[in-house]
Write a structure and sequence with these properties.
It contains five helices and eight strands; from the N terminus they run ααβββββαβαβαβ. By secondary structure, the protein is α+β, with helices and mostly antiparallel strands. The chain has a single domain, classed as L,D-transpeptidase catalytic domain-like, CATH 2.40.440.10.
Length: about 220
């Protein structure tokens, strides 16, 4: 789904109302807040040969083409492989020119996607109150200070995740995302649908992504 600037502004207004009701975010929208999705997109580097890429990365690069008018910075994207357990680094920074993974981190998924606490995403949902992870393409918006410190808002670009702003699905750090937890419980903790990282790593992730880059989350087709 391609978003017009008016649609983005509407999503942001809805998010301002709902942020006070979610545990992922503790700071409401400042007056006049608007993400940078309306900025002109930078030229995209030539895409890598799709047949040589892992299926999910190829799918993500196709999504980048589909949403190219919304994505300002197209030199790199993030790809989140939710076919992997939460004990494995599965949030990848991918170079768009080569299709290669540059860096990876642990990232939590929503408890609604893993009700038994198995460490695996069993299902996706875009519904309010589901506490689930949503699949699809996201656009990184502005950063703010929330319940878990420095965090970053996300705009859902697809029908499968277009409630992301209203649900306050964001990037943030959390104490329940820690590699030290894996030996004892076999997994990291779960979020309420947010992309939660280790507290010592979330700043690095946000600095690499900045505003106006795409995150693609899903499972290989």
């Amino acid at each position: 789904m391609k978003l017009s600037f008016r649609c983005v502004r509407s999503a942001v207004f809805a998010a301002a109302v709902s942020l006070a009701l979610t545990s992922c975010v503790s700071t409401p929208e400042p007056p006049g807040f608007a993400p940078t999705a309306s900025l002109p997109a930078e030229p995209r580097p030539p895409a890598a040969q799709r047949e040589e890429l892992p299926p999910l990365i190829a799918e993500a690069l196709s999504a980048l083409e589909e949403h190219s008018t919304q994505v300002v910075h197209q030199d790199r994207i993030a790809v989140v492989d939710f076919s992997l357990p939460s004990s494995k680094p599965r949030f990848h920074i991918v170079d768009v020119t080569t299709g290669r993974i540059e860096q990876s981190w642990l990232v939590a998924h929503g408890s609604g996607s893993d009700p038994t606490g198995s460490g695996m995403v069993e299902s996706f949902s875009n519904q309010r109150g589901s506490h689930a992870t949503s699949r699809g393409a996201y656009l990184t918006a502005n950063s703010y200070h929330g319940k878990y410190g420095r965090s970053q808002r996300l705009i859902g670009l697809d029908p499968e995740n277009d409630n992301a702003m209203d649900r306050a699905i964001v990037i943030h750090g959390a104490p329940y995302v820690a590699s030290a937890l894996i030996p004892s419980q076999g997994r990291i903790g779960r979020s309420q649908g947010c992309f939660a990282f280790e507290l010592g790593e979330v700043g690095t992730v946000m600095n690499i992504l900045g505003e106006g880059r795409m995150i693609y989350a899903g499972k290989p087709a």
